Amino acid sequence: MKRLKKLMLMSVLWLATTMTATGAEHGNNLKLTLVYDSPYGFDETLESLRNTIHAHNFRVFPDRYLEEGLVDEFSVNTRQVSVRFCNFSDLYAAIQIEPQVGVVLPCTITVIEGEDGKVQLLTGNVQAMLTLFDNPELTAAFQDLEQKYQAIIDEVTL
Prior knowledge:
It holds the Pfam family DUF302. Residues 83-122 form the DUF302 domain. By secondary structure, this protein is α+β, with helices and mostly antiparallel strands. Helices cover 47% and strands 18% of the residues. It has five helices and six strands, in the order αβαβββαββαα. α2 crosses α5 and α3 runs antiparallel to α5 (136-157). The termini are far apart.
């Protein structure tokens, strides 16, 4: 089981490196991860994020600690939480356009509280993920998804 987790982590790191290299090759300097500051505390930001995701017609799955499975359960930083969510009709539409897109959908927003108490939200950059595919139809479909993500972030951080 530990080998599988390490293999999965290595795969994600490889994908991140590949995506960054692909973006650089195409002359765009897209960041793989977008970071937003929250003016609120950790608990308030986390609760607001869950409620806002629900309000935008996404299904929210159980939260995961960012380090869960990477360190022993007593060492996990409980102030780093990934909120996972999905809109199944959007997912189905995207998979109809490009079956492989399900592997890279950024259906996670992570809330992190730093040692200084500063709270940030991190999410995958939809535009950076689109560089993996040369599909104008998928790009058009992802514009709507990107707008939904931005609306969620804006509501939580304003």
